[in-house]
Amino acid sequence: MCTSLTLGKPTYLSKDRGPLLGQGILASSGPLWAHQRKVIAPQLYPERVKGMLKLMVDSTTSMVKSWESIIESEGGIAEIRVDKYMQSLAADVISRACFGSNYSRGQEIFLKFESLVQLMSKGLVGVPGSRYLPTKNNREIWKLDKEISSMILQVVQERSQSSSHHKDLLQMVLEGAKTCGGYNGVGLNISGDKYIVDNCKNIYFAGHETSAVTSSWALMLLAVHTEWQDRVRAEILRVCKDGCPDSDMLRSMKTLTMVIQETLRLYPPAGFVFREALDDIKFRDIVIPKGMGIQVPIPILQQNPEVWGPDAHEFNPERFANGILAACKFPHAYMPFGAGPRACAGQHFAMTELKVMLSLVLSKFSFSLSQKYQHCPVLRVNLIPEKGIILHVKRI
Q1: Residue 108, exposed/middle/buried by CB under 10 A (0-12, 13-18, 19+)?
Q2: Helix (H), strand (E) at residue 365
Q3: Strands of the sheet with 272-277, listed across from one edge
Q4: Each residue's pLDDT tens digit, 112-130
Q5: What are phi and psi of 390, to 5 degrees?
Q6: Please, what sign has the CA dihedral across residues 177, 181, 182, 187?
């Protein structure tokens, strides 16, 4: 509810998580964040996301065909670690959305970025000075950071030399970089190159991680709760008769939407909402001094029985039958994409992508839990299945 620019992201995010987030939209504050939001958010509005639907379908169809080949070679049913495939699929989608025709280069960048995410999850976040220590982990982080920055700028150089300018996310970031010297008369203190690199990293991180991990958790939950798997599949086959969903069909998939919302409630990708008072703030009757950090633990909030009822820890998509407002006592207790002015700019992109991925996969395959599956949700940079999600997959 607080719209003041004096409440922003903690300064340690752009420092300790510098190689990952830098001063991009996820970690910046004040006028720089306002400028980035103004440039990036309109590109992710529903009408723009409609234009990305085909690339989401094409990427998912390619993965579906690879699963069909695996299942055929295994004699009709296969054991698949679905989280790895979902990660690659989400990376393919965001590479196409961000880099357009140059998406193969985007995928190369993503592979290095994924290694960077894994290394950063082992770091000592919040320990003063730890990022400067020449440890083996830090040296690998510094090396990858340079390589990723160099690769992004190489793609930018190729784009600037070409006569065609694709209307993709990269082009939007490039246009935003032209005005990063000032915004509403305020200097933003960031070079054009850093603006481009940091925001490309942020789009990659936010644009693939949410969808990859949420779709994986959703398939696990549906493999356990087969009655919901059957309900979702029946809806998909009824709504999407020719097998290729469009935006109107996705809007009609109410049961699938409820399952995604419940998955995001039980396994929100981010563990916390972080804020810092950048100046002394009086918020209603609460005085928050400058430098004070605020953390909202999302999984705890979203599974609080006082807010969600006695079945708060159970998988029950029916609670969302009448929308988020009716699902719990206080609507603000549901924040898988954050809340307020800094709510995730790409949440519509993520929800559309999740519906496409899950509808195409569930229309072709049925899922059950493998005995090899070990339930191990761990909060690293995001809430991930540390031991993977291994399912028996059967072609329908």
Answers
A1: middle
A2: strand 365-369
A3: 7-8, 272-277, 293-297
A4: 888 898 888 776 655 777 7
A5: -105, 120
A6: positive
Sole residue written with tokens 């965001």: 94
* Chain segment 174-232, per-residue pLDDT in tens: 888 887 655 454 567 788 899 999 999 898 888 888 899 999 999 999 999 999 999 99
Beta partners for 395? 365
d(CA 332, CA 334): 5
For residue 251, report the phi and psi dihedrals to the nearest 5 degrees: -65, -30
Sequence-separated (6 or more) residues with CB below 8 Å from residue 69: none
Q: Which residue has the tokens 């899922």?
A: 367
DSSP-assigned letter for residue 280: -
Tokens of 196: 């481009």
- Describe the crossing of helices 30-40 and 169-178 by its angle, rounded to 10 degrees: 140
Residue environment code for 202-217, b if the CB has 16+ CB neighbours within 10 A, otherwise e: bbbbbbbbbbbbbbbb
Token pair 């002394």 in the structure block, residue? 280
DSSP for 318-341?
GGGTT-GGGTSS-GGG--BTB-GG
CA distance 340 to 347: 13
**Helix or strand (DSSP H, E) at 288:** strand 286-288
| Rounded Cα–Cα distance for residues 117 and 129 (Å) | 20
